[in-house]
Recover the amino acids of this structure.
């Protein structure tokens, strides 16, 4: 499978590394970036051709799939153009910065033969897989609440490094849209259909940005569970992302992509921890081998194994003719929560989560 990459910045390099890791199943054939030197540098490092426009990608018959790694506010227009040109598409999160734009991607996919996935790589973490499977099997009982926190630090130089960072038009938001959306996606993936959001935001530690560096929200889910969502880039020096899920039969805690606590009440003799005391931590039983906790603050330059797992799933979905593990609808659901947070913060009122288009 021959890939083209649009956007040769920091996250573009992560995608390029993933495509290179997939050889010989995939190859990076073309790198496009509006900054010629940046396109040439990454292309040379990967043995690919360089281009300075997205149009050069879409006109190529020998390109099978396109990875979109531009500023967020351009994701949908490029994804739609790629689909209309007969390409498969993998989009770095978020799918775009507005629900209207995101739904254009869904419509383009529906009228094409292309497969689209949006990066939500932490769904592929072993810890996330274990907890989600336990929820689906009913081992945590009725879900009652969840807590998702991304307490990271980004210096002022991060926001000053690009005019689009911290802008509504191209970044779509601040700490929640850019950093916290992954953990928001996990919370929704685990707790179910989001219904209503009440939120507040603030900008406390940065200058020259339009958006928030702190967001806090309460989310009500269709099953009755309540979730707390916290995202900030103003927590020096930066901690690990953490998610807790609680039910009336069990609880799980993931910290820094590691399962640090798991307990499910025994339901039968085959259940891990059967006969144990109520407080015993079963994490080592359900996930015996885990990678070390990553450095706090999440270095965006680090190559994630989870990114690679999502790329493998994407390629396999195309080869087998099945939907990818993360669909456009999944990405729209996460984006709907984020946009509801911003709407609630602006109005000071609780707002519905509009996963479906307005009638």
């Amino acid at each position: 499978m021959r890939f083209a990459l649009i956007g040769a910045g920091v996250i573009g390099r992560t995608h390029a590394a993933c495509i290179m890791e997939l050889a010989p199943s995939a190859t990076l054939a073309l790198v496009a970036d509006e900054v010629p030197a940046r396109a040439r540098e990454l292309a040379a490092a990967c043995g690919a051709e360089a281009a300075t426009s997205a149009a050069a990608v879409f006109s190529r018959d020998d390109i099978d799939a396109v990875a979109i790694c531009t500023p967020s506010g351009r994701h949908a227009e490029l994804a739609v153009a790629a689909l209309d040109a007969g390409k498969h598409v993998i989009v770095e999160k978020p799918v775009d910065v507005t629900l209207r734009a995101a739904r254009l991607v869904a419509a383009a996919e529906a009228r094409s033969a292309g497969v689209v996935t949006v990066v939500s790589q932490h769904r592929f973490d072993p810890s996330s897989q274990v907890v989600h499977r336990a929820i689906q099997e009913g081992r945590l009982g009725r879900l009652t609440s969840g807590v998702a926190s991304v307490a990271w630090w980004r210096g002022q130089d991060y926001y000053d490094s690009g005019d689009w960072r911290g802008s509504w038009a191209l970044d779509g938001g601040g700490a929640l849209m850019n950093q916290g959306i992954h953990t928001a996606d996990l919370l929704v993936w685990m707790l179910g259909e989001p219904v209503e959001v009440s939120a507040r935001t603030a900008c406390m530690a940065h200058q020259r940005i339009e958006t928030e560096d702190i967001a806090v929200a309460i989310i009500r889910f269709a099953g009755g569970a309540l979730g707390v969502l916290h995202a900030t880039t103003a927590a020096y020096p930066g901690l690990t992302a953490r998610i807790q899920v609680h039910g009336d039969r069990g609880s799980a805690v993931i910290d820094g992509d590691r399962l640090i606590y798991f307990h499910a009440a025994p339901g039968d003799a085959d259940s891990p921890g059967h006969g144990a005391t109520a407080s015993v931590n079963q994490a080592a039983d359900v996930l015996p081998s885990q990678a070390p906790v990553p450095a706090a603050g999440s270095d965006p330059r680090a190559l994630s194994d989870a990114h690679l797992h999502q790329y493998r799933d994407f390629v396999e979905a195309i080869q087998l003719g099945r939907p990818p593990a993360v669909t456009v609808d999944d990405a729209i659901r996460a984006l709907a929560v984020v946009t509801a947070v911003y709407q609630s913060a602006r109005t000071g009122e609780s707002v519905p989560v509009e996963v479906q288009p307005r009638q």
Observations:
- The radius of gyration is 20 Å.
- The chain has two domains: 2-121+307-327, 126-298+335-344.
